[in-house]
Each structure stands twice: as structure tokens, then as C-alpha cells.
Amino acid sequence: MSDAGARPLTDTDSKNDPRSTPDLSEFDDIPGTTVFTAQRSRKGYWLNQFCMSLMKPENRARFKADERIYLDEWPMTEVQKQAVLARDYNAAIAEGGYIYFLAKIFASDGKSFQDAAGSMTGMSPEEYAAMMVAGGRSPEGWRSIKEGR
């Protein structure tokens, strides 16, 4: 197959061309929501690889024995390492952590998704469970950061 008939992409073409990179910045305008994009995936690559390492019992044991020493074996940013040490899952997500990979951390701590979600929302696990049983958060309310509404 030849590229002889290929031409450079124009601005008009790029909107529909799968080779173009879409502008996903509008996702940053959703209050309380972090959309896991390819950019965030790249940012959090080593953080997520660290999390996946905790699937092996020997790695969990090494991590629990000295968390900082184990974290320093990974080429993560200091902000990512601090998020792990503080068990600040919102900060870890902001640094590219993917919740299903971060689950390896709270599972290593003997915590459930309910425990972690509660901590991420400022609620106890029981308060979080009650909110979810009652139907979750209301869709009414703050919908745009930049518009303040």
C-alpha cells in the first residue's frame, strides 16, 4: 500500500480523523470528577505500575515493611509518592492514578472500595454506603467549574 495519495491533515479534517488528538480539556470543567484520559494515563504510568506490583504477596510484604524504600524503587514523581504515603486517593487520581489500580493499595491495607470511596468524599464508610443506598448524589447542583454553576 502506498502513501502517494496521502495529504497532510487540515484543521477541518482533524475533527474526524482518528489520527488526531482530541482536545479533552472540557473534562476538567466537571466538578468532583476526573476523567481518566490518555494524557493522565501517561502521567500516571509508573504510579499505576507500582500499584499493580502489589498483586504479588512478596511485593506487598516489602511495601508494608518500608513503604518509602519500596516507593523509591519506582520512577514516580515525589507528588505521586506523597499521595500514596498519605493514602490520598484523590491526589493520586489527579496525578494519573487509575482507581482500579489504586485499589491494590487500599486492598493491601485491608480496606474496601467502600472505605476508599468514603475517604475520597469526606464521608465515613457507613455514610457513603447510606448515600449510595439512598440513590447516590443528586444530579442537581454544581455542573461547571468555569461557569460557577
Descriptive overview:
- With 149 residues, this protein is an all-alpha fold.
- 51% of the residues lie in helices and 0% in strands.
- The chain is built from ten helices and no strands.
- The chain has helices at residues 11-14, 38-43, 45-53, 57-65, 67-71, 78-86, 89-94, 99-108, 113-121, 125-133.
- The termini are far apart.
Q: How would you summarize the topology of this molecule?
A:
Layout: H1 11-14, H2 38-43, H3 45-53, H4 57-65, H5 67-71, H6 78-86, H7 89-94, H8 99-108, H9 113-121, H10 125-133
Helix pairs in contact: 3-8, 9-10
Q: Which architecture of the domain at 35-109 per CATH?
A: Orthogonal Bundle
Global mean pLDDT: 84
What profile does the largest beta sheet have?
none
List how many beta strands DSSP finds. 0
Q: Order of helices and strands, N to C?
A: HHHHHHHHHH
Count of alpha/pi helices = 10
Labels describing this entry:
149 residues; mainly alpha; Protocatechuate 4,5-dioxygenase, Chain A; 10 helices; 0% strand
Quick structural gist:
This protein is an all-alpha fold. The protein contains ten helices and no strands. It starts with 10 loop residues before the first helix and ends in a 16-residue tail after the last helix.
